[in-house]
Amino acid sequence: MGIEEQKEEREVLDSIFPDEITDVTDTEYRVSIALDVSPDYSIDGDDAEELPTILLHVRYPPDYPDEAPELDISAPSNAPKHPLLDIQEDKPRLLESLQTTIEENIGMAMVFTLVSTLKDSAELLVTERQKAEEAEKEFEAAKAEEEENRKFVGTAVTKKSFLEWRERFRQEMVEEEKRKQEEKEIEDKKRRVAKEEKKLTGRELWERGLAGKTDEEDEEEGADGLEGLKRLKVSG
């Protein structure tokens, strides 16, 4: 019964994947599966022809489908390596993703379902890595922006730093007020001295050596001089 079911499934698969199936033996073949992933992550940014492809190797055991098929995964020969998918490293995870499908379909033809499941699992893996890469880029961009913003942002204010700043500010205000008061006192003293000098009499200025003789004093000295000359003449 297994052989007949295997032949029937194989005929159906030929009609579904006319260009994707390659026979190895009567009971073994491989199916080429092209993955639909974002063009941004295709090889060298080329079109869909360059999108990643994986090969599902299927071998029927004698009792298939009552027994699980033997499966393997590989990359096409000479295929360029996709930046987000490494068939050799990812093979265990991809094969593991098929186990539930196998268990649920024992006793029934399951290769078409396995192909669909493998395609979905591989595309999901690429998508997860794509999102992780985008998140990392966004994180690095945000980090760089934060570093740039720090150049224009002062130190964060805490309660302690604010109190310290306020104390320094108050001290600076006290010192500034003191300096202004001292300057004012010096200026006031200068004005008082100038005002007092204006109020002094001619004699006070003379006594203090602040001015020359007055006109009245010159006239008195002149009169005294003439009187002396008259006396000298009389005596002669």
UniProtKB/TrEMBL annotation:
It holds the Pfam family RWD. Residues 8-125 form the RWD domain. Coiled coil: none annotated. It comes from the Eukaryota. InterPro entries: GIR2-like, RWD_dom, UBQ-conjugating_enzyme/RWD. Residues 173-236 are annotated as: Disordered. Residues 215-224 have a biased composition (Acidic residues). Residues 173-207 have a biased composition (Basic and acidic residues). This is RWD-domain-containing protein.
